[in-house]
Design brief:
It holds the Pfam family Glyoxalase. InterPro entries: Glyas_Bleomycin-R_OHBP_Dase, Glyas_Fos-R_dOase_dom, VOC_core. This is VOC family protein. It comes from Rhodococcus aetherivorans. The structure is a single chain. By secondary structure, this protein is α/β, with parallel strands linked by helices. The protein has one domain: 2,3-Dihydroxybiphenyl 1,2-Dioxygenase, domain 1 (Roll). It is 17% helix and 37% strand. It has two helices and eight strands; from the N terminus they run βαββββαβββ. Strands 1-4-3-2 form a four-stranded mixed beta sheet, covered by helices on one side. It has a four-stranded mixed beta sheet with strand order 5-8-7-6, covered by helices on one side. β2 and β3 form a beta hairpin.
Length: 132
Amino acid sequence: MQITASALSLNVPDVAASADFVTRHLGFTETMAEDGFVSLTREDAGFSLVFLRTGLGTFKPASIAGDAGQGTLVAFVVDAIDDEYERLRAEGVPIVTPIETEPWGERYFQMRDPNGIVYQLVQWMDEAPSVS
């Protein structure tokens, strides 16, 4: 098998709201859209991000076509995490977990889009902070 592309598809009530969020704040661009569907990409993300309107009849199997919001976390590794944190706060993005650094060197924060999808930006620190 050879994988030629990858996508993460999320069911949300308001496709336009999530698409606008990742376009405006995370630099994705729309590649395709129809009623209840939008596909977005960002060259350096490594996958497309697809939003489907909850209850869309083309989603199969229908038994798992619920809302993707609860428990969904979309993570991106970035450089200059502190700069991104300040930029997104200044843009009024809802921050749900303020910036923090884990003992193993993962520095991150989390934000939420209008449909409740949580996005986490992460920077791996060269050295884990010392624990006192």
